[in-house]
Amino acid sequence: MAAPNFSPEFENPLFLRTCCDALERRREHELPRGLVGVSSVFDFYFASVSDAITSRMGLFPRLQIVERALSVLTQAMVDERSGYLPIARVLALLEELHPSHGQTEQNLFFQLENEGVLTVEPLVDGATTIEMVRFTFERLSDHRIAQALLDAAITADDPAPAFAPDGPLRDYVVGRHTSRFAGIAEAFAVQLPERFGVELMELVDDEFARYDLVPGFRASLLWRRQGAFSARTLHILDQFAGYMDGDPWLDTMIAIATEPGNAFNADHLDGWLRPMSLPERDELWSVRATYLAGNEHNAIDTLIQWILANGLNPIEPERARLTAMTLSWLTSLSHRVIRDMATKALATLLVERRPLAAQLIERFADVNDPYVVDRVLAAAYGAATRRHNDDGLAALAEAAYGAVFADDPIRAHALIRDHARGIIELAAHRGAIPAGISLDRVRGPYPSGAPLEEIGDAVLERFVQDYGGTLLRDDIVSSAVEDGDFARYEIDPLVRKFLQLPREEVGRSIRAQYGDWYAQAVAPHPERTAALQRVIDLSGQLSGMPFDFNMWLNAIEDTPDIQGAEIEKPKRDDVEEQREAASNEFQALLSETELREYRIYGKVWVEQAMWDADTSPRYPSYDSQKARRWIAWRAHDLGWTPQRFANFERDMPSRGRSEHSIERIGKKYQWIALHELTGRLSDFVAVDGGYNDEPRYYSGSWQVETREMDPTILVTRTAQRDASSQPATWWSPHAPRWREDPPKARMAWMRDESRDIPDPAMQFQVSDPDGRHWFVLEMGATRNQSVLLEGERVFLRMTWHKIQSLLVRRSDVELLMRLLRGPNGERDHLPKIELPWHAYLGEYPWHPAYETLRDDWRMGEPEVEVFGTIADRYVERSGHNYSIEESFNLTIPGPRLMRGLGLRLAEGRSLAYSDARGRIIFKDPSAEASGHSAAVVDRDALCALLARDDFELVWVITGEKSAHGGRPHRHGWGGQLDYWGIYRFDGTTIWGELQFARNDPQASQLAEFLAHR
Questions:
Q1: Distance separating alpha carbons of residues 747 and 1010, to the nearest angstrom
Q2: Considering only Cβ atoms within 10 Å of each terminal Cβ, which end of the chain, N or C, has fewer?
Q3: Residue 700 above 70 pLDDT?
Q4: Three-state secondary structure readout of 411-461
Q5: DSSP 3-state assignment of 59?
Q6: In this structure, how many other beta carbons lie within 10 angstroms of the beta carbon of residue 11?
Q7: Residue 111's closest CA among 70, 158, 164?
Q8: Which top-level group of life is the source organism from (predicted)?
């Protein structure tokens, strides 16, 4: 559809067919531009019908016989004040206009009925049945009647007299019969502003009648021509909003926002929202829109779903621009479902519209809501990754650079930096980087920033809220400072990833850091020198003593005097106490600043690194209390107050700690502060390198796990179904079906090495419905049989099998086959490619987020180098990602396949991978067709890779089948048959064989199994 609010008549197959037939006769492929509003839609429909019948009957077009026939019937309905006419009268009227002389093909009634314009309904009146004729589409009938009434009753372009107390149209809108004419009144509400520039509600002076006209007035707002929408229209809408469901004013503003001809479209919406402060806009827009989104049918959902379905298709440029602006403003909401889905819809819209994406970035760069700026950049980034050609990419990168990195200082919000950088990194990867962009400034480290502001108690004490007459610290302070959920689950985990170590020290040895600190803070002071030496001496003494109970036991194993050795444990405790006391004495000699520096540079060296050169120093993490206080202050600084938002936040239903689909406005401000905190910290301190790793520079938000949704995934769900009842698919053809056999038969089935065991060659090599051949690289399927017994489900049979694969050099394949066939379990624990959790799908594998990714391993002894073929990515709807409707698993090609086959993520919303020509080479079929998740690769393409690089493909298949039964919650079991096989493909043939091992039940399990079905 080319618009979100298309006439509902187009949902009727008969109406749609008539219009499509008309387009085909005209050799056109789309409905006329500007076909907006039911009046123009119905005009097009009747013109289509007239053309069709005139041509079929061989009528002279200039006589307009069909048009006159429709007018005659309409006038008769007006005269009867009814939408129904007796069939005899209809036949007489039409015969009078164009005699058929008994010929069916010349009969106007037959042709109009056959075309679906007229329909016959039997009307029962007592014992008599009368056939009545009406227009098939009731609203079409209402509009024709309304048009005829207005034509006859209104003169001098002034409709007021016609609706006056003695006017001819008064009874249609005022009085006890108005319910009969509700459809005609709605048609008046559409046609009066279109034809005369006046609203029906303005012409009716009866207050109670006006209330009855409210539903028709509201419906008319979407179905009139958009030019017939005035400030007076909005005023009337606002005046009668209390008599409508939901928030009709805002719902209408969003519904008309995408209409190019409406003076109150997204440009008007933007002009209303842009000048506001952040809290003012959230109060007047975000809160209201969140409430609106809770209604079952609302313009927000309509808009988002329209773009998710049609955003990749042609849309007139002006409507696309207005849609993009509307979606951008919807990302300001704390309603995460709406915000995430609006972001995904915007990304979908921008895939084929890079110039619009660049324009949007420039337009929203200076908006004072980081929620919006971030998601505009995220959507533009996601869209850019889903298109292969580079048209407009340089201009997009330039817009992103100007919006973020041209600023001095660079704005702190980490996700804004991240998404702007992503656009520029993509352009650099494709060789489309504009000449004026400095990649060093984009990639960082960014210019050093100031430390966080110190937020004292006096500041926090100002943030209070009235709780039933008692003033206590408000919701922000409670959440962010006083050990609330946001403090414990968001702030603290983030802060632990940053160190107190200044980032300028990254790359310098701890010895050098200590030396500089010692020379400045200790050496000039004899008293400090002596005190610190005492700490060093005790640390050296401790370093030679066991510090773990097991190590202590190991130390005394060779000691003959056990009794003497037993005093070593408490002796270590004594030394530790002495060192702690000495350390406290030394620290008492330092100022507050010097003490902080000692904990960074001195303590870690003196107590750890000096004595163990192989251990990476454990620098102290950044101060979480300081970060908590800063977050609380910054959220208030952004404008949150309980006076503005407490009522809304109290109305929000509690969904539990892990449910974040709709968040408080205060939580929005805390999230903004958290992402700014990430940027601020990264500008002056180092990032923890993890266990046994040195401190590092901050690289991006993926490094500290603060990314939210993935804007490069444009689907909201896949067809993946892993149910055990899943039937066979072309990529998983083994799907056994069973009868409900008795226990002994099921045991015989389990022991049979030929029944329901998948043929490996047929599982590895498959063909799709089009006859194209694929290799299955990975797949897992479980299929079970169960029955209801005593009201509970009891399993009778259970089966599963799993396929995995590796690439290996041809010269090493025999060695790998022996290794995998061996008894050490290597085949059960094949190496897996571990994808970075917070890297985006569309960034794979070129983005810095994947720079540590590896797909090669060395297995066994002697070592064999192998390469993984696939990686698993789990896309989860939970936590802070509501851009998908349900979680799904996705398999993607390993780096070796990506390079060797020249793969890249396919264009648009596809989750498959294509070659440079756009041909799909690798995919998970369950993304688009119901079935188990799997990875398949084009057979011919892989064969070419194997021959060129002298590789072979090795599969490992494992599985089992088992017999079950007995009563619920008992231990009935008939045994299990395990199987496994190692297979190789040498370029022409698949080689290998299955091995079997049976596990028999214990006597008690077998007895329970055989005693019941």
A1: 9
A2: N
A3: yes
A4: CCCHHHHHHHHHHHHHHHHCCCCCCCCCHHHHHCCCCCCCCCCCCCHHHHC
A5: coil
A6: 9
A7: 70
A8: Bacteria
